[in-house]
Amino acid sequence: MKETxxxxxxxxxxxxxxxARQLAQESGxxxxxxxxxxxxxxxxxxxxxxxxxxxxxxxxxxxxxxxYLLDSSGFVQSIHRGELGCPKVLELHLSPACPCACIFCYxxxxxxxxxxxxxxxxxxTALLTNNKILSIINALVERGCDAVYFSGGLEPFSxxxxxxxxxxxxxxxxxxxxxxxxxxxxxxxxxxxxxQRATLFRFSIHAASPYTYGIVQLPNRHDGDVIFDLVxxxxxxxxxxxxxxxxxxxxxxxxxxxxxxxxxxxLELEDAVRxxxxxxxxxxxxxxxxxxxxxxxxxxxxKQKEELEQIYTRIxxxxxxxxxxxxxxxxxxxxxxxxxxxxxxxxxxxxKAVLVLQRYFS
Length: 362
Hints:
The structure is a single chain. The protein has helices at about 5-15, 20-25, 30-45, 45-50, 65-70, 70-80, 130-140, 160-170, 190-195, 210-215, 225-245, 270-280, 300-320, 335-345; strands at about 60-65, 90-95, 145-150, 175-180, 200-205, 255-260, 285, 330, 350-355. A 9-stranded parallel beta sheet has the order 1-9-2-3-4-5-6-7-8. It has 2 domains: about 1-50; about 55-355, TIM Barrel, CATH 3.20.20. Strand 3, helix 8 (about 160-170) and strand 4 form a beta-alpha-beta unit. The protein is built from 14 helices and 9 strands. Helix 1 (about 5-15) packs across helix 2 and helix 10 packs across helix 11 (about 225-245). The chain is of the alpha/beta class.
């Protein structure tokens, strides 16, 4: 490797949030050399693991390391001075706790409740106060971050930080929220405010019947069928809040549901579309990246894939006939990822930054 690339690589590994421009200036590498460096970094499994990259491997996503967050005053100062690359999207991972245990979950679906000692906060978590978290968010927004996603680690509302940060953060960015919708994770007051503040409020519901919901999302519990009905009512309440806000002339989030087809639920996809269209949600998101290599369930076999394609065809026909009550079928995640990585042609791995704000003992 050329001396300039070696210097650039060493500097990046020393300080991953550095911008591509700053990296080129400090190392003397050309724009093309920096592109080549990032291609090499993305292909290096050991480096990628050390950076805790979350999400697709195209390289536009990076987890900001905790040691920078813990010195939040220096971190924020670096943001304001333009020394850090400012992502277009900031994704917040507030907690590893979740009431669900989805069989395809990237976190192996432990279904850990927020009060479980196994995932109690570590000692240095106390250093990341809500005020420090807010200062980081607001600094990035002021530098040009367009959107803030509350989508994990697992259930964002399992953390008490969620509602406080949501109430107090800058009003500028687009806000997307993903939740399981399981009862006791979010109060009606917080739900109402979240729908008023967010642009998109998305539920993760991967079944159309109580029985299948229990198999796919709550295999660790015996009351999955009961929980499904409660979650269904939670979505209906969210739609009611949205309608009331819009009728009074106030902003309101679009309500969406995500469904990942797996062998245990793919035959219910068509029924799910009908259910959510009748309830009046805005978007139905059919995911296609649940069955990754490290998934705990097998991918669809060839026959199941053929059946799924037929289901897709029927769903498209329903949409073309206007029978979905204005509900839109969102594009697959693969399409979204391609548009992000190709359209922006971003070779710095910080188009989307993932801030893992709390570390837990495990």
